[in-house]
Amino acid sequence: xxxxxxxxxxxxxxxxxxxLPPKIVINCxxxxxxxxxxxxxxxxxxxxxxxxxxxxxxxSVSHYSASEHFSKVFCKVCGSTVSCVNNxxxxxxxxxxxxxxxxxVALPVDLQVxxxxxxxxxxxxxxIPVYNP
Length: 133
What we know:
Largest sheet: 8 strands, mixed
CATH class: Mainly Beta
Number of helices: 1
Number of domains: 1
Shape: globular
Order of helices and strands: EEEHEEEEEEEE
Structural class: mainly beta
Oligomer: single chain
């Protein structure tokens, strides 16, 4: 898989691009991701840092350190997640929120992680491998 994906926050104050291929595409069910996103799970495209850049609105982003290894970048204007970093799992990589990718891009999920933490009522896709550390 090659090419470039582009994304933005909801209000378009922040725009980014990432060169493919990704390291991995994951659905994370951990309680931290669920709480920070407000959703049943987070969908991430994990990109090496040198393949990711913010094209517009770097002055509109804010950073939140959720733990020693996990931080989130979000738009100060609309609150949308722009990216996150998890140095414990993938150092030197940026996680981009799959839902903020512009256009229709085929990026199949490679792995479902922390499924033991998943929200009640969430059914896992049996065709996608599971990893629970």
